[in-house]
Every structure is written in C-alpha cells, then in structure tokens.
Design goal:
With 520 residues, the protein is of the alpha/beta class. It has 24 helices and 14 strands.
C-alpha cells in the first residue's frame, strides 16, 4: 500500500492511512486512502459539521424561506453569505440570516419559548415570506428541545405558513456530509407530495444537487428550456419551497452533485418510481454527453445535438486558445466532494493541466475512488488534510495553482501559490460551454498574473523592477519605448503573460509568441 506519511503528522500514526500516492500500474485496491471516518484526535481538522452540511450547503439556497437556526448565534453567522447561492428574488436568503440566539440561561431552563417567540417575530418582520426551515444545532439537541411540537403550534396559530424541521446537529455525522443525508431524508419524509404542480410539458425533470453558484443553475436550465424540458424543481439552488414539495410529479431526476443529493433521488425512485440519471455540467465533452443522455431518455436527441453543435462551434476555439497556454501547468485539485471527480480528468483533457494532487475533507470512499481513477500516476490523494499537511504538500508538489475553498486558498496565497475558489468561484458561472471557457480564463489569469509573480519576490535578495516602474506586457511590445527598457531581462521576467483586458467574447487574441516570459 503506497501510503504517504507527512512529516508534520508523524506524531499521529493513524494519519498515514489517509494519504496515498498513486504509483505506476496501481488500481483502486492499492491506492485508496481511508475516508469519511471520525476525525482523528489531534489532527486539527478543517471539516465542517453536519449542521453546516444541512444548512449551508443544501438548505440555504432555497430562495423564499426564512432559514432559522435554533442555537447559539455563532452557528448561523458561520454559515451566512459564505457561498454565492444567488436567487431571482433579490437574494433574500443571502441578505438575511436568523438565529434564536440561545444562551447559557436557555441551556439551563430550556429554549422552547424562545424558539416560538422567534418564529412568530420572523414571520411578522417579513410578512411576504410564508415558509421557514428550522435547523437544529448541537446545543438545543443536547437539551432536548421539541422543535417539531413548537412548529406544529405555530402552524395551527398561523395557518398560512409552513415550516420544515431539519434535525441535523453538528455531531450528527463525521463531517458536513452527514448533514446532507439528514436534510435529504427529512425533506422527502416531511414535504414531498404535499403540493400538486402545474405540468406544462411532456418532459418534466427535477434538477437535483444543483445550488446555483453564481448562476450555474440558470445556465443549465437554459439548455433544458431549449430542449423543451420543464424543470419542475431545483434541489435547491434558486429553488422555491412549494416547487420542491411537488418533486413527486417529475418524470426524471437529473442529478448533478451525487455526494450531496443522491439520497433524495434514491428515495424518489423507491417511493414514486422516478428514475435517476447522473449528469455533469462541467467541461465540453462531459456536458455534451449529459445533454445527450437526458435527451435520449425523452427521445429528443436532435434537440440536444443542435445545442451541442451550436455551443461547441462558438466556444471551442477560445477553450483551445487557453489550453495551449495552460498545457503542463500543475494543479492541486482540493475542492468539495463531487468536483473531485467532476474536474479531475476533464481539466487535463480539455485544458492541458496536470493534476498532481486530489483531496477531500468530507467526501466518501466512492468520491475518492472516482477521483483517483481519473488521475494519472504520482498523484497524491489525501483525505481530510489539516493546514500543516496542506502546506507540506504544496512545498513538495510545487503546483502552479490550486482549486480549493477560501480558507486553504488564502493559506496557499501566503506561500506564493495562486488559487481559484472551487466552492463559490471567482468569476462564475463555470457550468456550460461559455462557463468552462470562463473557468479557463480565470486559471490563466491566476497563473500568469503579474501580481502573483511580484508577490513571490523575496525582497531581501531578489531584484525588484522599481527603477522604471512596473512594465506590463502591453508596454513591453510598445515600439515607442526605449530599447533598453523593452530588453530588460528583469522586467521581462516579472511581467508575465497576463492579459485581463481581452474580453471573453472577443475572438481576436494577441499571439502568444509575442509574450517573452511565457515563451521562455
């Protein structure tokens, strides 16, 4: 077994089984780290909790809902506005967060009265919002508050409101993935089948495991609309509470993020006979195959092929332009659960990048299996790394860029490695054909950014081009500049190959050969 032992974790021998290096000819039986286990004491994990997985990942993207956390105010504050789950109702779910603000006296004497008071007050403050989700937290779960009973009382007193209870305290699982499961099952148990929808098409789907990060869902919905498909509900990006109560009337469940939402798809299949079809909205070829699969289910393949041909012709030349310039660049793929395997192969095949490491903080064994299977030899796979292990991996692998969340990403920037936010994106959406080009552009701009290159200077020893100011690539090619400036090796070294001025939709690009630093 090719385990990788981090120097910083030698005092925790169990951690050795949570990192492997994929060697030549090895399959998943010999290069799969342990995963989705309780955090090892002393490893200082950066995982989220089950409450976070339920509220932050899945619940909060519902747009027309008061999301109320029953617990200390820090719990809801920690899950407020940390992802760009946009909606078309003025981003209500991003602007406001609600908590009962449980304190020591409530732990001693109970917080049920406080909860009821907060529920009624929230509905009074926002009279246009008639739906609420209440999230259990560790503190109120431990003291045994009966949230369900309080919710029933309020719904009897206010018959025009509806309340969903998510009993997913932080300790309900090894990581946030435990919360994914909790809210999936709670939703189908409590709410699915309680509303009858209006059907407007012969082809009706639930789009599941899609959270509308910077508009991802809108991109995919546009493809479905062009194919004549009605999206009955989106679980849960820009999703409406009542639309999601009608999930039982769809003909097909189209599943994007299998890590967070496969549970409700499986239950819809068992209880209502709705089949599940897994798709992938990232990358030209995976997206094209996904559209073909959905179309084939309904017998409308010609509509999918028309979209694929049009979008590919429009955007493939621009993707190829970036691929030529990203070829061979090393990337650490350290995202959430499903992007581990959604991105691992396609960024190599369609962008020319080399994946040197994959990791997941909350993914299951299946996620690691798919991610490692799609990586090449020598890739380092890590389950639930802590900050010190992450830094050690960066020092060893020397990647050109990492795709990860904000916390490890900001740490990477401090050691001179640019990062792109794999959770909330930098300049998304990243789904769709145009979105994939936008992702490539963000990668290109991060790697070749003069700011990152200048930030890597050691001012105690490295030459700093301050004598004539910072000269950009555009200035270097300016014939009016004196020859000694344009020929300056110091300036050429740190000017990079950055060109953020070129619009994404502009097909006229400068030639790469005119960019000295990149050409070298």
């Amino acid at each position: 077994m090719p385990y990788h032992e981090f120097e910083c974790s030698k005092c925790i021998p169990e951690r050795k089984q949570h990192a492997v290096t994929k060697g030549p000819g090895e399959d998943l039986t010999s290069c799969l780290p342990k995963g989705y286990l309780n955090t090892i004491p002393g490893s200082i994990s950066e995982r989220g909790c089950a409450y976070c997985g339920a509220k932050h990942v899945i619940g909060t993207p519902m747009k027309d809902v008061i999301h109320l956390s029953h617990g200390p105010i820090g719990c809801t504050y920690d899950t407020w506005q940390t992802k760009r789950y946009i909606s078309d109702n003025g981003n209500f779910q991003l602007k406001y967060t609600f908590a009962t603000d449980v304190r020591e006296k409530h732990i001693v004497f109970g917080a049920e009265k406080l909860l009821k008071q907060n529920i009624i007050e929230a509905f009074q403050q926002f009279p246009d919002i008639k739906r609420m989700t209440i999230y259990q937290t560790c503190a109120t779960a431990l003291i045994g508050d009966d949230i369900n009973a309080i919710a029933e009382e309020v719904m009897e007193e206010l018959p025009d409101v509806d309340i969903f209870i998510c009993n997913s305290p932080g300790f309900a699982g090894p990581s946030q993935s435990g919360g994914h499961h909790k809210i999936n099952i709670a939703w189908i148990n409590q709410k699915v089948g309680t509303v009858e929808p209006t059907i407007t098409s012969d082809y009706v789907i639930n789009y599941v495991g899609e959270y509308n990060i910077q508009g991802d869902q809108e991109v995919m919905q546009d493809f479905f609309k062009r194919m004549g498909i009605q999206v009955l509900s989106t679980f849960t990006g820009n999703g409406s509470y009542d639309d999601l109560r009608a999930m039982h009337k769809a003909h097909l469940n189209v599943l994007e993020c299998a890590r967070s939402a496969e549970y409700i798809c499986n239950e819809l299949r068992v209880r209502y006979g709705i089949p599940r079809l897994d798709i992938d909205g990232f990358g030209f070829e995976p997206l094209s195959q996904s559209l073909r699969k959905v179309a084939m289910f309904f017998g409308i393949q010609d509509r999918a092929e028309a979209i694929i041909a049009e979008e590919t012709a429009r955007w493939k030349p621009e993707l190829d332009w970036y691929k030529e310039r990203l070829k061979g660049k090393k990337v650490c793929l350290w995202p959430g659960g499903s992007k581990l395997w959604h991105w691992a192969h396609v960024i190599e095949e369609e962008m020319g990048l080399k994946v040197v490491s994959v990791y997941t903080k909350f993914g299951h064994q299946g996620d690691m299996e798919k991610g490692i299977a799609r990586c090449g030899e020598d890739a380092l796979a890590i389950d639930d790394p802590n900050e010190l292990e992450g830094l050690e991996a960066l020092e060893m692998l020397k990647p050109d860029i990492i795709f990860t969340g904000k916390r490890p990403g900001e740490v990477a920037k401090k050691v001179g490695v640019p990062y792109l936010n794999a959770h909330a994106y930098h300049n998304g959406p990243y789904k769709g054909y145009e979105g994939w080009v936008r992702f490539a552009r963000d990668i290109y701009n991060a790697i070749y950014s003069p700011i990152h290159q200048l930030a890597a200077l050691d001012i105690s020893r490295d030459p700093i081009p301050t004598d004539k100011g910072f000269v950009t690539q555009r200035m270097l090619s300016d014939a009016s500049l004196p020859e000694e400036i344009r020929a300056s090796t110091t300036l050429r070294q740190y000017s990079g190959a950055y060109d953020s001025v070129t619009p994404l939709r502009d097909k006229t690009y400068p030639t790469f050969d005119s960019r000295p630093a990149a050409a070298e």
